[in-house]
Design goal:
The chain is α+β, with helices and mostly antiparallel strands and 222 residues long. It has 9 helices and 4 strands. The model has no long low-confidence stretch (mean pLDDT 95). GO terms for molecular function: glutathione transferase activity.
């Protein structure tokens, strides 16, 4: 029997958090080995574990997988969260890419300060409200289903919930103009495996604080 997936990353969200979400939603237990100092990262470099000298890295099914998109696609396919055919997979990919773009903006927010941070937050709010959330609101309205693709829980739904919660941390009440997304948030949050992941004490990571950001800068020479 294969062991649990092992996740190699810092003790924070970053690009690994979506992997944690997807594994948790699939009901898969996983282990984590945290990169807490530069030497931890250098050890992974030196032993050849990182294909492109980058993390996240996930040990799964005898592979040491890198590149977040590849890792997520593999997990989604393995645990039946990637649609029933190529067309559904294409829609899932499009929706996931959109939420990834939005989450990428949010991930960069703590690395800004002062006026630039305020401008970046305003841009996040504008893009979420006018570019991204209207797409998902319309999708739910047009097909009248509980889920984004194929009326079945998929990677697209899990990723969207993660993006919604991240955006709400930046701007509470941002879903006020999107009633179908509000209902969607409630539904997906109550999927048993996801509900468990959202409880205190899970492997979900908190928003990054100043101490975490300072350590990330030190580890990765940012």
């Amino acid at each position: 029997m294969a062991g649990k997936p092992k996740l190699h990353y810092t003790k924070g969200r970053g690009r690994m958090e979506s992997v944690r979400w997807l594994l948790a939603a699939a009901g898969v237990e996983f282990e984590e080995e945290f990169i807490e100092k530069k030497e931890d990262l250098e050890k992974l470099w030196s032993d050849g574990s990182l294909l492109f000298q980058q993390v996240p890295m996930v040990e799964i099914d005898g592979m040491k997988m890198v590149q977040a998109r590849a890792i997520l696609s593999y997990i989604a396919g393995k645990y039946n969260l990637y649609g029933k055919d190529l067309k559904e997979r294409a829609w899932i990919d499009m929706y996931v890419e959109g939420t990834t773009d939005l989450m990428g903006m949010i991930m960069h927010l703590p690395f800004h300060s002062g006026d630039t941070k305020e401008k970046h937050l305003a841009l996040i709010t504008e893009r979420a409200t006018n570019r991204y959330f209207p797409v998902y609101e319309k999708a739910l309205k047009d097909h009248g289903h509980d889920y984004l693709v194929g009326n079945k829980l998929s990677w697209a739904d899990i990723h969207l919930l993660e993006a919604i919660l991240m955006t709400e941390e930046c701007k509470p009440g941002i879903l006020s103009a999107f009633p179908l997304l509000q209902a969607f948030k409630g539904r997906i949050s109550n999927v048993p495996t996801i509900k468990k992941f959202l409880q205190p004490g899970s492997q979900r990571k908190p928003p990054p604080d100043d101490k975490y950001i300072a350590n990330v800068r030190k580890i990765f020479n940012i």
